[in-house]
Amino acid sequence: MRSSDTTETKQLVDFSTVFWHGADLSKLKMHLIDNIDLISAVPERSAETISRLLSRRIEVREDEVLVTSGSTGAIHLIAKRTAGANSLVISPTHQEFKVALARNGHQVTEIDSCVDITKLPLEGIQYCWLCTPNISDGRLWSRTSLLTLFKENPNVTFIVDISMAAFVIEETLKPSDIKNHKNLILVSSFSKAYNVPGMRVGYVVARKNIIAELRESSTPCNISAFAVEAIRFILIHPAQFTLPARKWHRSATELKARLSAIDGLEILPSSTAFFVVRLLDMDAVKLNEYLMNDCGMKVAVCTDGLELKPNEFRVNALDNESNRALADAIATWMSNR
Amino acid sequence: MRSSDTTETKQLVDFSTVFWHGADLSKLKMHLIDNIDLISAVPERSAETISRLLSRRIEVREDEVLVTSGSTGAIHLIAKRTAGANSLVISPTHQEFKVALARNGHQVTEIDSCVDITKLPLEGIQYCWLCTPNISDGRLWSRTSLLTLFKENPNVTFIVDISMAAFVIEETLKPSDIKNHKNLILVSSFSKAYNVPGMRVGYVVARKNIIAELRESSTPCNISAFAVEAIRFILIHPAQFTLPARKWHRSATELKARLSAIDGLEILPSSTAFFVVRLLDMDAVKLNEYLMNDCGMKVAVCTDGLELKPNEFRVNALDNESNRALADAIATWMSNR
């Protein structure tokens, strides 16, 4: 925690995450400081306070929500409950899908990319795992095509991670979509949109019978009273935590324009303010080493446990000044190769 | 969280817990306030910082420790990994044992009480679940008899919750006992001895192969960076957190003496500063209602989800002034029946 290398990592300007870095957490932090005595409070058995407030916000019933230890906890819980099933994943995708499916003995079919989501090879598949917008590259499947997919394949259950739904401008899946699609299990999280990954609060939204089953496997009392209070504060002060997606996208557009001006790289399509850049003939891991060692910056590369190719990196747009510095640093490195 | 009834409960002088109420957490709280930014920190995958520091402290190897979401998380994890087995529990015991065993389809044999722990009916039993000192009543099995039990029954695995080991004066089981007993799985927690149940940090200590198996079922990243920092602080400042067991016991002895002077009740044997009191002809739930409504105090009764009889209550000795007030209140209530 306090080792020197960790401290150095913290000081880097970090383009490698998928968190909404601009969240203003000052009032939340003040509130938590006022409530520091909660470290001695016995937790609720199933984070009922969060389920109650959240279900109202996302317009589902309280028994259609299960609070979990981050979206990671949600994914592992579902994979465990469906252990040994035939599952389909579309790569690149959420690394945690693959970890959880492997751990729980799923028979995994992996398809490498997919233009038409409504024509997936679902013969014999029981569960299909998607992340939209996709954590790997920011790609989004359209709401209409996804709803068609769910409707046309009633015998397949779709587990869809929508943790980053607030990151896109387009209309995407909503928690209340479970009402019309009983084969839909949605996974989400407070970590990314509110920049509180340290609180470990995610959730599953699905029909009542599915939630009841998952609850049976969920560890009681695993959300601390402190984390419950943090999320309660976020939920009762929504205006403080609105994510300005358009502003964030404008800064991404500017960053993309600067990067496009550099020879020897290609920007892959994305619906989020983070996106993948492919180097045409060079090693992204080496570029990242240069950025970390010489420029005090960091992007995400394959060695960070992401499904990227060695010549690809993922970058999350920060403020314009940082973005400019990044584009300049990349241009310098590229011109010296 | 903020509903009026919760607020009222908080203001009660609470004799119903099994936490070491006297823990001085002021420096820990200051430290956490200084580190409030950790709410935005990505957690370690398996709380490695805690495993490393803790394993040194308790003199086992790092791969013999698994950090869990409280002792509750540890118990559910073990029950899940051994689902469907033949298990023995000795009642009264940790309620969470029964919840976890029922959830995971164990065939549970329950024996009502046990004078000689070395003569348990273990024929056909695969797992035996114990809590010592016992959370229900503070009873302790002697270290010698337990070690004999483990040795004489090599085909039974013993899961022993020692979360309250620091509460007793007598010698009890130690984490390093796993070295000589490969059929021993110890469960413990920081919540009770350090009064930080809000942090949700417990752990399992067992031989390497058992820990590796449990780790496979454990949710990654489920201990927040904030909780890791709290426990790190506790582990590197042990002197600040020493539990003064003898002092606590003296205050329990005084409380027991005062209660003994009251007609119509019996104090059950206990090795901890909390103990069970049996009312000879009266309802402990009614007594507790009187204490809560008229005296601003609370003891633990059967309706709190504990394995107590309707005429029994559990009381945790607090400071002498509070203890005196409790004894006086009970005497008043008893004399008015």
From TrEMBL, chains A, B:
Keywords: Amino-acid biosynthesis, Aminotransferase, Histidine biosynthesis, Pyridoxal phosphate, Transferase. One of its GO terms (molecular function) is histidinol-phosphate transaminase activity. Residues 44-330 form the Aminotransferase class I/classII large domain. Pathway: Amino-acid biosynthesis; L-histidine biosynthesis; L-histidine from 5-phospho-alpha-D-ribose 1-diphosphate: step 7/9. Gene3D superfamilies: Aspartate Aminotransferase, domain 1, Type I PLP-dependent aspartate aminotransferase-like (Major domain). It catalyses: L-histidinol phosphate + 2-oxoglutarate = 3-(imidazol-4-yl)-2-oxopropyl phosphate + L-glutamate. GO terms for biological process: L-histidine biosynthetic process. Belongs to the class-I pyridoxal-phosphate-dependent aminotransferase family. Belongs to the class-II pyridoxal-phosphate-dependent aminotransferase family. Histidinol-phosphate aminotransferase subfamily. This is Aminotransferase. It comes from Porphyromonas cangingivalis. The lineage of its organism: Bacteria, Pseudomonadati, Bacteroidota, Bacteroidia, Bacteroidales.
